[in-house]
Amino acid sequence: MTARRVRIPDDELNWKFTRSSGPGGQHVNTSDTRVELRWSLEDSTALDEAEKDRVRERLRSRLRDGAITVVSSQYRSQHRNREAARARLIALVEAAITPAKRRRPTRVSKAADQRRLDAKRRRGDIKRQRRMEP
């Protein structure tokens, strides 16, 4: 099953810009390049209720007051950080709404089971031989 592409409307995204840390010279002291993107899962129209429940379950450690926050400061440009934050948010949500694959139960082969038992028997023999010597 392929993951559904999520489209989050621009009006649901809250942006906050601050000065980024790290090197950058005079430019870094004057421009707000660090981007903090906040998206309210509860108020969103991009997902149906089943998908919202799945996101709540899988991203519960990232949810604060029903919203997911993503921060990007890897680029020196505010525009590129905006794109990076949006891409990271969409990737997070898409991964969360993708249903988990059902595990198909498999059986251990007879040969593998026999190898395991043989190894246990050999190990037991080694320990038994140690006990017999004074």
Can you give a write-up of this model?
With 134 residues, the chain is of the alpha+beta class. It is built from 3 helices and 4 strands, in the order E-E-H-E-E-H-H. The protein has helices at 49-58, 78-97, 110-132; strands spanning 13-18, 34-40, 63-64, 67-72. The chain has a 4-stranded antiparallel β-sheet. One of its GO terms (biological process) is rescue of stalled ribosome.
SSE arrangement:
Layout: E1 13-18, E2 34-40, H1 49-58, E3 63-64, E4 67-72, H2 78-97, H3 110-132
Keywords: Hydrolase
Region (Disordered): 100-134
Pfam families: RF-1
Features of the shown structure:
single chain, 134 residues, alpha+beta, Double Stranded RNA Binding Domain, four-stranded antiparallel beta sheet, elongated
Low-confidence stretches: none
Which oligomeric state applies? single chain
Radius of gyration: 26 Å
> Which word captures the global form?
elongated
Q: Helix tally?
A: 3
Strand segment tally = 4
Q: What fraction, in percent, of the residue positions are helical?
A: 25-40%
Short description:
It is built from 3 helices and 4 strands; from the N terminus they run ββαββαα.
